[in-house]
Amino acid sequence: MNPQDAPDAAAGLSPTLAASPGPSSPTARRPVLVPLLGLLALAALVTSLLLWQKLSNIQEQLARQTADTGAQALEARASARQAQELARDTAARVAVFEARLSEIALQRSQLQDLMQSLSRSRDENLVVDIESAIRLAQQQAQLTGSVEPLLAALRSADQRVQRAAQPRLTSLQRAIARDIDRIKAAAVSDTPSLLVKLDELVRLADELVLANAVAPAAALAKASPLAPEARPAWWQRGLQRVLDEARGLVRLSRVEEPEAALLSPEQSFFLRENFKLKLLNARLGLLARQMDSARADLQAARAALDKYFEPGARNTQSAATLLRQVQEQMKQLQLPRVDDTLAALTTAAAGR
User: Over the chain, what is the mean pLDDT?
Assistant: First the structure.
Protein backbone atom coordinates (compact mmCIF):
# COMPACT_ATOMS: atom_id res chain seq x y z
CA MET A 1 0.00 0.00 0.00
CA ASN A 2 1.39 3.40 -0.99
CA PRO A 3 1.63 6.24 1.50
CA GLN A 4 -0.25 8.41 -0.94
CA ASP A 5 -3.25 6.27 -0.60
CA ALA A 6 -3.29 6.57 3.16
CA PRO A 7 -5.33 9.77 3.28
CA ASP A 8 -7.86 8.19 0.96
CA ALA A 9 -8.06 5.14 3.11
CA ALA A 10 -8.38 7.19 6.19
CA ALA A 11 -11.04 9.19 4.51
CA GLY A 12 -12.81 5.96 3.61
CA LEU A 13 -12.56 4.62 7.10
CA SER A 14 -13.98 7.65 8.78
CA PRO A 15 -16.18 9.51 6.42
CA THR A 16 -17.97 11.16 9.21
CA LEU A 17 -14.82 12.61 10.54
CA ALA A 18 -13.84 13.88 7.16
CA ALA A 19 -17.21 15.31 6.47
CA SER A 20 -17.77 16.85 9.78
CA PRO A 21 -16.07 20.14 10.24
CA GLY A 22 -13.89 20.27 13.31
CA PRO A 23 -12.11 22.94 15.11
CA SER A 24 -8.61 21.37 14.30
CA SER A 25 -6.72 22.11 11.15
CA PRO A 26 -5.17 19.72 8.57
CA THR A 27 -1.75 20.05 10.21
CA ALA A 28 -3.23 18.93 13.47
CA ARG A 29 -4.72 15.73 11.94
CA ARG A 30 -1.48 14.70 10.17
CA PRO A 31 0.34 13.30 13.30
CA VAL A 32 -2.58 10.95 13.99
CA LEU A 33 -2.71 9.52 10.48
CA VAL A 34 0.96 8.72 10.26
CA PRO A 35 0.93 6.06 12.96
CA LEU A 36 -2.16 4.52 11.52
CA LEU A 37 -0.60 4.33 8.17
CA GLY A 38 2.53 2.84 9.71
CA LEU A 39 0.47 0.23 11.47
CA LEU A 40 -1.34 -0.59 8.31
CA ALA A 41 1.91 -0.84 6.44
CA LEU A 42 3.35 -3.01 9.14
CA ALA A 43 0.31 -5.24 9.08
CA ALA A 44 0.51 -5.49 5.34
CA LEU A 45 4.19 -6.28 5.57
CA VAL A 46 3.57 -8.96 8.18
CA THR A 47 0.79 -10.38 6.09
CA SER A 48 3.03 -10.42 3.05
CA LEU A 49 5.78 -12.10 5.05
CA LEU A 50 3.37 -14.67 6.33
CA LEU A 51 2.04 -15.28 2.86
CA TRP A 52 5.57 -15.50 1.51
CA GLN A 53 6.56 -17.92 4.24
CA LYS A 54 3.47 -20.03 3.62
CA LEU A 55 4.17 -19.99 -0.08
CA SER A 56 7.75 -21.00 0.60
CA ASN A 57 6.52 -23.86 2.78
CA ILE A 58 4.15 -24.96 0.07
CA GLN A 59 6.95 -24.81 -2.49
CA GLU A 60 9.23 -26.76 -0.21
CA GLN A 61 6.50 -29.32 0.38
CA LEU A 62 5.84 -29.56 -3.34
CA ALA A 63 9.55 -29.92 -3.99
CA ARG A 64 9.79 -32.60 -1.32
CA GLN A 65 6.77 -34.45 -2.72
CA THR A 66 8.23 -34.10 -6.20
CA ALA A 67 11.50 -35.53 -4.95
CA ASP A 68 9.69 -38.32 -3.17
CA THR A 69 7.66 -39.01 -6.28
CA GLY A 70 10.83 -39.13 -8.35
CA ALA A 71 12.44 -41.46 -5.84
CA GLN A 72 9.36 -43.65 -5.86
CA ALA A 73 9.38 -43.59 -9.64
CA LEU A 74 13.01 -44.65 -9.61
CA GLU A 75 12.21 -47.36 -7.11
CA ALA A 76 9.25 -48.42 -9.26
CA ARG A 77 11.50 -48.56 -12.32
CA ALA A 78 14.02 -50.60 -10.35
CA SER A 79 11.24 -52.89 -9.06
CA ALA A 80 9.88 -53.23 -12.58
CA ARG A 81 13.34 -54.07 -13.85
CA GLN A 82 13.78 -56.60 -11.06
CA ALA A 83 10.33 -58.00 -11.78
CA GLN A 84 11.23 -58.35 -15.46
CA GLU A 85 14.49 -60.06 -14.56
CA LEU A 86 12.64 -62.28 -12.07
CA ALA A 87 10.04 -63.08 -14.74
CA ARG A 88 12.79 -64.01 -17.18
CA ASP A 89 14.48 -66.14 -14.52
CA THR A 90 11.13 -67.72 -13.66
CA ALA A 91 10.42 -68.43 -17.32
CA ALA A 92 13.85 -69.99 -17.69
CA ARG A 93 13.32 -72.09 -14.58
CA VAL A 94 9.85 -73.11 -15.77
CA ALA A 95 11.36 -74.19 -19.07
CA VAL A 96 14.03 -76.17 -17.21
CA PHE A 97 11.38 -77.69 -14.93
CA GLU A 98 9.22 -78.64 -17.94
CA ALA A 99 12.21 -80.27 -19.58
CA ARG A 100 13.00 -82.16 -16.37
CA LEU A 101 9.32 -83.06 -15.97
CA SER A 102 9.24 -84.48 -19.48
CA GLU A 103 12.43 -86.44 -18.73
CA ILE A 104 10.93 -87.70 -15.47
CA ALA A 105 7.72 -88.69 -17.27
CA LEU A 106 9.78 -90.55 -19.87
CA GLN A 107 11.83 -92.24 -17.15
CA ARG A 108 8.65 -93.12 -15.30
CA SER A 109 7.12 -94.72 -18.38
CA GLN A 110 10.37 -96.61 -19.00
CA LEU A 111 10.43 -97.68 -15.35
CA GLN A 112 6.83 -98.86 -15.55
CA ASP A 113 7.65 -100.85 -18.69
CA LEU A 114 10.67 -102.32 -16.94
CA MET A 115 8.62 -103.20 -13.86
CA GLN A 116 5.95 -104.82 -15.99
CA SER A 117 8.61 -106.73 -17.87
CA LEU A 118 10.19 -107.84 -14.60
CA SER A 119 6.78 -108.79 -13.23
CA ARG A 120 5.99 -110.82 -16.34
CA SER A 121 9.42 -112.41 -16.20
CA ARG A 122 8.94 -113.23 -12.52
CA ASP A 123 5.51 -114.72 -13.19
CA GLU A 124 6.88 -116.72 -16.12
CA ASN A 125 9.74 -118.01 -13.99
CA LEU A 126 7.28 -118.89 -11.24
CA VAL A 127 5.06 -120.76 -13.69
CA VAL A 128 8.03 -122.63 -15.17
CA ASP A 129 9.35 -123.59 -11.70
CA ILE A 130 5.94 -124.80 -10.57
CA GLU A 131 5.43 -126.84 -13.75
CA SER A 132 8.88 -128.45 -13.42
CA ALA A 133 8.28 -129.27 -9.74
CA ILE A 134 4.85 -130.80 -10.44
CA ARG A 135 6.12 -132.92 -13.35
CA LEU A 136 9.04 -134.15 -11.26
CA ALA A 137 6.69 -134.96 -8.38
CA GLN A 138 4.42 -136.82 -10.79
CA GLN A 139 7.35 -138.96 -11.94
CA GLN A 140 8.33 -139.65 -8.33
CA ALA A 141 4.75 -140.63 -7.53
CA GLN A 142 4.71 -143.03 -10.48
CA LEU A 143 8.00 -144.59 -9.40
CA THR A 144 7.12 -144.93 -5.73
CA GLY A 145 3.41 -145.63 -6.09
CA SER A 146 2.63 -142.96 -3.50
CA VAL A 147 0.73 -139.72 -3.97
CA GLU A 148 2.61 -137.90 -1.20
CA PRO A 149 5.27 -136.34 -3.50
CA LEU A 150 2.53 -135.04 -5.79
CA LEU A 151 0.52 -133.63 -2.88
CA ALA A 152 3.62 -131.95 -1.44
CA ALA A 153 4.44 -130.35 -4.79
CA LEU A 154 0.87 -129.08 -5.23
CA ARG A 155 0.77 -127.61 -1.71
CA SER A 156 4.12 -125.88 -2.28
CA ALA A 157 2.86 -124.49 -5.60
CA ASP A 158 -0.31 -123.21 -3.91
CA GLN A 159 1.75 -121.38 -1.28
CA ARG A 160 4.00 -119.81 -3.91
CA VAL A 161 1.02 -118.61 -5.92
CA GLN A 162 -0.53 -117.10 -2.79
CA ARG A 163 2.70 -115.24 -1.98
CA ALA A 164 2.90 -113.94 -5.55
CA ALA A 165 -0.60 -112.37 -5.23
CA GLN A 166 -1.05 -112.00 -8.99
CA PRO A 167 -4.63 -111.80 -10.28
CA ARG A 168 -3.66 -113.57 -13.50
CA LEU A 169 -2.68 -116.66 -11.46
CA THR A 170 -6.07 -117.01 -9.75
CA SER A 171 -7.20 -119.69 -12.20
CA LEU A 172 -3.99 -121.63 -11.50
CA GLN A 173 -4.71 -121.51 -7.77
CA ARG A 174 -8.23 -122.85 -8.31
CA ALA A 175 -6.91 -125.66 -10.53
CA ILE A 176 -4.35 -126.64 -7.88
CA ALA A 177 -7.07 -126.78 -5.22
CA ARG A 178 -9.23 -129.03 -7.44
CA ASP A 179 -6.33 -131.42 -8.11
CA ILE A 180 -5.47 -131.58 -4.40
CA ASP A 181 -9.06 -132.52 -3.55
CA ARG A 182 -9.14 -135.12 -6.35
CA ILE A 183 -5.90 -136.75 -5.18
CA LYS A 184 -7.08 -136.85 -1.58
CA ALA A 185 -10.34 -138.51 -2.62
CA ALA A 186 -8.64 -141.10 -4.88
CA ALA A 187 -8.16 -144.65 -3.57
CA VAL A 188 -4.74 -146.11 -4.33
CA SER A 189 -3.98 -149.81 -3.81
CA ASP A 190 -1.26 -151.06 -1.55
CA THR A 191 1.74 -152.21 -3.59
CA PRO A 192 3.24 -154.58 -0.95
CA SER A 193 0.00 -156.58 -0.79
CA LEU A 194 0.09 -156.97 -4.57
CA LEU A 195 3.65 -158.25 -4.38
CA VAL A 196 2.65 -160.81 -1.74
CA LYS A 197 -0.19 -162.08 -3.91
CA LEU A 198 2.09 -162.37 -6.94
CA ASP A 199 4.59 -164.37 -4.87
CA GLU A 200 1.75 -166.67 -3.79
CA LEU A 201 0.76 -167.15 -7.43
CA VAL A 202 4.34 -168.07 -8.33
CA ARG A 203 4.35 -170.62 -5.51
CA LEU A 204 1.04 -172.11 -6.68
CA ALA A 205 2.32 -172.47 -10.26
CA ASP A 206 4.07 -175.77 -9.42
CA GLU A 207 0.88 -177.19 -7.84
CA LEU A 208 -1.49 -176.37 -10.66
CA VAL A 209 -3.12 -179.31 -12.43
CA LEU A 210 -2.93 -179.35 -16.20
CA ALA A 211 -6.09 -179.87 -18.20
CA ASN A 212 -4.71 -183.08 -19.84
CA ALA A 213 -3.08 -184.53 -16.70
CA VAL A 214 -3.93 -188.15 -15.74
CA ALA A 215 -5.52 -188.45 -12.26
CA PRO A 216 -3.59 -190.75 -9.89
CA ALA A 217 -5.15 -193.98 -8.73
CA ALA A 218 -5.34 -192.85 -5.14
CA ALA A 219 -7.35 -189.82 -6.19
CA LEU A 220 -9.65 -191.99 -8.25
CA ALA A 221 -10.14 -194.35 -5.39
CA LYS A 222 -10.92 -191.41 -3.10
CA ALA A 223 -13.38 -190.11 -5.64
CA SER A 224 -15.13 -193.52 -6.00
CA PRO A 225 -18.72 -193.56 -4.71
CA LEU A 226 -18.19 -197.02 -3.24
CA ALA A 227 -17.30 -196.35 0.40
CA PRO A 228 -18.91 -199.02 2.58
CA GLU A 229 -18.74 -198.65 6.28
CA ALA A 230 -17.82 -202.29 6.80
CA ARG A 231 -14.70 -203.97 5.50
CA PRO A 232 -15.45 -205.32 2.02
CA ALA A 233 -15.08 -208.98 1.24
CA TRP A 234 -12.12 -210.39 -0.62
CA TRP A 235 -13.96 -210.65 -3.88
CA GLN A 236 -15.19 -207.05 -3.53
CA ARG A 237 -11.66 -205.84 -2.96
CA GLY A 238 -10.43 -207.75 -5.98
CA LEU A 239 -13.23 -206.37 -8.14
CA GLN A 240 -12.44 -202.82 -6.95
CA ARG A 241 -8.77 -203.27 -7.80
CA VAL A 242 -9.66 -204.44 -11.29
CA LEU A 243 -11.96 -201.51 -11.79
CA ASP A 244 -9.27 -199.07 -10.60
CA GLU A 245 -6.73 -200.53 -12.99
CA ALA A 246 -9.29 -200.31 -15.80
CA ARG A 247 -9.95 -196.68 -15.01
CA GLY A 248 -6.16 -196.03 -15.06
CA LEU A 249 -5.91 -197.56 -18.53
CA VAL A 250 -8.82 -195.70 -20.06
CA ARG A 251 -9.74 -192.10 -19.17
CA LEU A 252 -12.59 -190.09 -20.56
CA SER A 253 -12.51 -186.32 -19.96
CA ARG A 254 -13.70 -183.15 -21.66
CA VAL A 255 -10.97 -180.68 -22.68
CA GLU A 256 -12.25 -177.32 -23.85
CA GLU A 257 -8.96 -176.23 -25.46
CA PRO A 258 -7.43 -178.56 -28.06
CA GLU A 259 -3.93 -177.17 -27.37
CA ALA A 260 -4.15 -178.29 -23.74
CA ALA A 261 -4.84 -181.90 -24.79
CA LEU A 262 -1.81 -182.00 -27.10
CA LEU A 263 0.74 -180.95 -24.49
CA SER A 264 3.52 -183.41 -23.74
CA PRO A 265 5.06 -183.78 -20.24
CA GLU A 266 8.14 -181.85 -21.39
CA GLN A 267 5.97 -179.06 -22.71
CA SER A 268 3.98 -178.95 -19.46
CA PHE A 269 7.23 -178.13 -17.62
CA PHE A 270 7.96 -175.20 -19.91
CA LEU A 271 4.31 -174.15 -19.66
CA ARG A 272 4.58 -173.84 -15.88
CA GLU A 273 7.88 -171.97 -16.20
CA ASN A 274 6.39 -169.63 -18.78
CA PHE A 275 3.43 -169.01 -16.46
CA LYS A 276 5.78 -168.19 -13.58
CA LEU A 277 7.85 -165.99 -15.88
CA LYS A 278 4.75 -163.96 -16.77
CA LEU A 279 4.00 -163.48 -13.08
CA LEU A 280 7.60 -162.46 -12.34
CA ASN A 281 7.58 -160.00 -15.24
CA ALA A 282 4.36 -158.51 -13.86
CA ARG A 283 6.05 -158.22 -10.47
CA LEU A 284 9.05 -156.42 -12.00
CA GLY A 285 6.73 -154.14 -13.98
CA LEU A 286 4.86 -153.30 -10.78
CA LEU A 287 8.09 -152.44 -9.00
CA ALA A 288 9.25 -150.36 -11.96
CA ARG A 289 5.85 -148.66 -12.13
CA GLN A 290 5.36 -149.91 -15.69
CA MET A 291 1.66 -150.49 -15.24
CA ASP A 292 0.81 -151.19 -18.86
CA SER A 293 3.48 -153.88 -19.13
CA ALA A 294 2.43 -155.42 -15.79
CA ARG A 295 -1.21 -155.52 -16.86
CA ALA A 296 -0.28 -157.14 -20.17
CA ASP A 297 1.75 -159.85 -18.36
CA LEU A 298 -1.11 -160.50 -15.94
CA GLN A 299 -3.55 -160.76 -18.82
CA ALA A 300 -1.26 -163.29 -20.55
CA ALA A 301 -0.95 -165.29 -17.32
CA ARG A 302 -4.73 -165.25 -16.93
CA ALA A 303 -5.17 -166.51 -20.50
CA ALA A 304 -2.64 -169.33 -19.93
CA LEU A 305 -4.35 -170.30 -16.67
CA ASP A 306 -7.76 -170.52 -18.31
CA LYS A 307 -6.41 -172.32 -21.38
CA TYR A 308 -3.98 -174.98 -20.14
CA PHE A 309 -4.94 -175.74 -16.52
CA GLU A 310 -7.84 -177.68 -15.07
CA PRO A 311 -10.53 -175.14 -14.10
CA GLY A 312 -12.18 -177.50 -11.59
CA ALA A 313 -9.04 -178.06 -9.52
CA ARG A 314 -8.86 -176.32 -6.14
CA ASN A 315 -5.39 -174.87 -6.73
CA THR A 316 -6.45 -173.58 -10.14
CA GLN A 317 -9.47 -171.87 -8.62
CA SER A 318 -7.33 -170.33 -5.87
CA ALA A 319 -4.81 -169.09 -8.45
CA ALA A 320 -7.63 -167.67 -10.59
CA THR A 321 -9.09 -165.86 -7.57
CA LEU A 322 -5.70 -164.38 -6.63
CA LEU A 323 -5.03 -163.39 -10.21
CA ARG A 324 -8.42 -161.70 -10.47
CA GLN A 325 -7.80 -159.77 -7.22
CA VAL A 326 -4.40 -158.62 -8.45
CA GLN A 327 -5.90 -157.40 -11.72
CA GLU A 328 -8.63 -155.49 -9.89
CA GLN A 329 -6.11 -153.85 -7.58
CA MET A 330 -3.88 -153.00 -10.52
CA LYS A 331 -6.70 -150.85 -11.87
CA GLN A 332 -6.61 -148.82 -8.66
CA LEU A 333 -2.86 -148.31 -8.91
CA GLN A 334 -3.39 -145.68 -11.57
CA LEU A 335 -2.40 -142.43 -9.90
CA PRO A 336 -4.75 -139.47 -10.37
CA ARG A 337 -3.53 -137.01 -12.94
CA VAL A 338 -3.10 -133.26 -12.47
CA ASP A 339 -4.45 -132.25 -15.86
CA ASP A 340 -6.24 -129.15 -14.51
CA THR A 341 -3.05 -127.76 -12.99
CA LEU A 342 -0.98 -128.49 -16.09
CA ALA A 343 -3.60 -126.86 -18.33
CA ALA A 344 -3.71 -123.79 -16.07
CA LEU A 345 0.10 -123.60 -16.13
CA THR A 346 0.07 -123.74 -19.93
CA THR A 347 -2.51 -120.94 -20.05
CA ALA A 348 -0.51 -118.80 -17.58
CA ALA A 349 2.71 -119.37 -19.54
CA ALA A 350 0.96 -118.22 -22.71
CA GLY A 351 0.06 -114.96 -20.96
CA ARG A 352 -3.72 -115.37 -21.18
Answer: 76
